[in-house]
Design brief:
single chain; 13 helices; 12 strands; disordered C terminus
Length: about 375
Amino acid sequence: MTSTLPDPARSRAVLIGTASYRHLPQLPAVEANVVDLAAELCDAMVWGLPVQHCTVVTDPQSPLAMLDPVHQAGDEATDTLIVYYAGHGMRDSESADLYLALGDSRDHLGYTAVAYQHLRSALRASRARRKVVVLDCCFSGRAARTLVGGDVLAAQAAVDGAFVLTASPRDRLALAPDGERYTAFTGELLTVLRGGVQDGPELIDLDTLYRVLEERLRAKNRPLPQRSQENGVGRLPFARNKARAGRRTPAGPVLAADVRAAMVATGLAVARALRAAGNSRDALPVLRLALQEQTTHGQGDLLAVQLELSELLAESGQVAEAVEVLELAFQQVHKLYGPEAILVCRRLADLLQESGNHIQACEVLKHALHIAEQGGPRTAS
């Protein structure tokens, strides 16, 4: 197994999240899951996946909307393919199989959702040498069983070079804690990517990631993750260990732009920590200060700051300022396409509509549609 990270140029990631439902409970944390996980995978300090190689699919309304991006990424990837799903996991009343919910899915009716076996088929068809599946949904442990299991499904389910990481055992519910920005499993995953593993290796492999996630979730008495793998792919490095960043790297010249980018990233991290502690009031000025650091570097963090700030402003009733912040972000996504572009458009359109600016809201949504159709930022909704 390689001792280096997968080649970003020859790898792809598809991050799927269904947060809004008609017949099932809403999962607002899922939207933050996919957006922030995309930002981490594209962060050069974590992996450095090019943004055009990271597809974010939010609230897919049909099997085509969910699976077409997986097939496309599978055709393009020759090194590693990562597929992440967050949302409701379902069981059909007639079988024990896992289904991935869509916006119109109804509980216990598998035909209203996407059968996991169809996602598995897309993985099997991929040219990628290695496949990594991360499922943050109820009953996701069933995927580990059906992908590389020891039962009657094993023969038809095998996928060479596959690693499956799931949020819960096969018959347990995953957890989306009230008041928390992320679901329990993805929240811990993001914590590991952002902070690294103390005393861990320079590169965090999939087996180490699983072990650390299990320890963190067990300590909080939350559902424990499961894993399955083939061909020793668990030894595949997944991310750089930020806890060891720079320990043996010689110091070089520090540019003003680098300092500003670091201030943006630090401000975002501090504000998120304050929000997690329930201190939104102090998070606001921190985010405003971070927003003042305009730089051509670290645009991903700057967009994340704008999204975080606009959300806080809207929650506190300062809708006009929230619109101003998102309008600034909207101007940026005309030139810079990343995994958050569609989300910027959607949130701005929502706030404009709430403010009575329906024509402007329509224009923003038209731009979002143009982004999706042109394929500049490979994002779907």
